[in-house]
Amino acid sequence: MPAPSPLTIATQSVQRLVKEEGYYRKELAQQSERVQKLEAELKDAPETGDGNAAFMLKQEQKAVEETRAVFAPLHERIAEAVRRLEEQTATAESEGAAEEELAKAREALKLGRDLEPSPV
After folding, report:
1. Rounded (5°) CA angle 102-104-110
2. Is residue 63 pLDDT above 70, yes or no?
3. pLDDT tens, 66-100?
């Protein structure tokens, strides 16, 4: 099996980073939902429970902040990967690369460029 071309490597890099960003968005949504649920439970019944709810809320809020902190560096990595893919696409077009490979690269470029701004 031949080694993947630089264009294929760059394409897969952008796809992987975009997918990773999607997972972090999903994780952030789940964590935020848990925080809201814990806040509602504490607000409704602050005196009941085992006293662990406030600690759990603090831990979940910390997890949300840690997840939010991931987005800025991740978006920088995506922007760099998109830049590299643009360069590889231009090189591959001038060298007459396979159209299928170029189509996948263009699709990955679109995914990388069309990302929503990071949730903050």
Report:
1. 105
2. yes
3. 999 999 999 999 999 999 999 999 998 888 878 88
- pTM of the shown model: 0.85
Q: Are 60 and 35 in contact (CB under 8 A)?
A: yes
> In angstroms, rounded to a whole number, what is the distance separating the alpha carbons of residues 4 and 97?
13
CA distance 45 to 74: 39
Q: How crowded is residue 74: how many other Cβ atoms within 10 Å of its Cβ?
A: 17
* Integer Cα distance of 82 and 108 in angstroms: 8
Query: Cα separations (Å) of 91 from 5, 86, 106?
Result: 12, 9, 13
d(CA 28, CA 37): 14
